[in-house]
């Protein structure tokens, strides 16, 4: 019994009690006339690909998320900003199944309940996540890193007998070119620069071919030029993928909101809930936001 | 490795640079090791049996047993390397699987003694001594060699599966996992020390007479067991090599380097860890089953925490995450041990301690890592000269 296990047990129990207490449906999740629920397939007919409702997470009495509600449309690129400790990373933990909320609901499309799935299952249905600290397999080569991320059967036996086909090699080559690591394919990932590791991790996300990408500070430690190229890459994904970008770098946010589609929305988190939401200009003019960022 | 690298014909879009990740000691080292193992398996029996005892080249039986024993240890070290070196899970309980395999073989050997024991009874001597009238239930299959060999694989495999399932599902990692494996082998040792458990208490099993009806202490049987052990070691090495070179092996290394990334890439680490954990446990058990007829004794001291820690030391000394390393390490440490305990019996433990400190401080990659370092220096030197 490790302390984490006991804590986890206590959290599970609180969550279970909260869920039993507030057991009531909201929204339309079932099959209806002309609409078939396909298990494991994301249903974005209602426009939203990610829907969080009243998510609360507390650690030792500290509320990391406080009744957070947020909805992301299919194909949207949403930037999320907020001061340190606003709950941005915890929110990603909840979406990807790493942290179970005490209360609240999280839906992927309108039919998949994220709170019922494990991390690996959530990744398989199409949510990719990039960590704040670039996380790659340091001892493997760049090529092997991408190979492991490639969309394929994830079971043990399949991995033992898997061989790469020509199509899959083409796909890896394509992503290598996209993340500018074509000349480094056989290098050990641990020897890459910080910015290159960031790109490799983004490349690994692309290999998974997710529908929703969660990107936690993707340009931290990148040079200006690398940052610019990353912004271009994300803008090219907009529309075909949904992206949630958490970032401190306001210049990068500016690049993202100005390029691509118009009317992009920015969400400001503070103390575990949404403080403001709107276009970048609106948000920057918002008095509450200014107060939070500059202090009273 | 070559299986995953694209060939120029199949991938016109992708041209790979020629430089590959340097593998430990390269292909030459791998072939060298395999050749050495095969040579040992062939040469030792010849020197022992075919060369006349008076000749200078004759190898005394003592060495046949010693090398056979060390080859069993090398299988254990290889198993430890799969779970520790490649997957990053340090087990300090592998001695238990080794001992269980040994006990499985020992039960069969005890029954093979027949009525030649001290008490001339159908039951093994220790049962007569305890005044038992019939075999306990868990000895039911001990008459049959085949059934008992199945148990050698199944019992440790099942124990590893159940233990591993709960440990990995609860995401017990790092030092916590090492400690509970240590506790597991310690608990088993206390259990096997008790006479009521039916495994001969603290004396364990010894005084074996026959295996498959053949007298066990003859030179021919000894050499046959030696050759089987050598072949098993080679087989385990080839299996391990195949495993780590598949995508499965790369997922294991990925789990070692960044388990959360593996999970968020859609792999469930539970089944990967569990499968390699069970494979590793079964390899250890087979080594134990080969060890007992050669050494002629099995008792609960094989389950002592120190025995399991020693397996980890062989692996670390040889070099983790290389397949050559653990085999080299097992031979080096045990070779040194048998020499030291004869030449300076009172200093062996000091030497072992010093060796472990030295490896931790100066050779984090083990002996094999040292060779690789030299090779790299040589290459750098050669590169400099070329440029000059």
Summarize this entry quickly.
Chain B: It holds the Pfam family BPD_transp_2. Chain A has 296 residues and is of the alpha/beta class.
How would you characterize the overall build of this protein?
Chain B: The chain crosses the membrane at residues 31-50, 62-84, 91-110, 145-168, 175-193, 223-244, 270-291, 311-335, 347-367. Chain B: It is found in: Cell membrane. Chain A is an alpha/beta fold and 296 residues long. Chain A has a single domain (44-294), classed as Rossmann fold (3-Layer(aba) Sandwich). Chain A is 38% helix and 21% strand. Chain A has helices at 3-21, 88-95, 119-124, 142-149, 156-160, 166-178, 194-208, 224-237, 250-258, 280-285, 287-294, and strands spanning 48-59, 62-73, 77-81, 103-108, 112-113, 127-130, 212-216, 242-246, 266-270, 273-278. In chain A, strand 4 (103-108) and strand 5 (112-113) form a beta hairpin. With 388 residues, chain B is mostly helical. In chain B, helix 2 packs parallel to helix 7 (219-245) and helix 7 packs antiparallel against helix 10. The chains are: A alpha/beta (296), B mainly alpha (388). Chain A binds chain B through residues 2, 5, 96, 98, 118-121, 123-124, 128-129, 131, 135-141, 143-144, 147-149, 154-156, 159-164, 166, 169-170, 172-174, 176, 183, 185-188, 201, 204, 208, and chain B through 3-6, 10-11, 13-14, 16-17, 19-21, 170, 172, 176, 243, 246-248, 250-251, 253-254, 256-258, 260-269, 271-272, 275, 321.
Tell me how many strands of chain A there are.
Answer: 10
What's the number of helices of chain A? 11
Low-confidence stretches of chain A: none
Radius of gyration of chain A: 20 Å
In terms of structural class, how would the helical and strand content of chain B be classed?
mainly alpha
| Beta-strand content estimate of chain B | under 5%
Instruction: Tell me about the largest β-sheet of chain B.
Output: 2 strands, antiparallel
Tally of helical runs of chain B = 14
Count of individual domains of chain B: 1
**CATH level-two architecture of chain A:** 3-Layer(aba) Sandwich
Strand content of chain A: 15-25%
Strand order of the largest sheet of chain B: 1-4
How is the largest sheet of chain A built, in terms of strand order?
Answer: 6-7-8-3-9-10
| Structural class label of chain A | alpha/beta
Into how many domains do the coordinates of chain A divide? 1
CATH H level of chain A: which superfamily? P-loop containing nucleotide triphosphate hydrolases
Shape of chain A: globular
- What is the arithmetic mean of pLDDT of chain A? 87
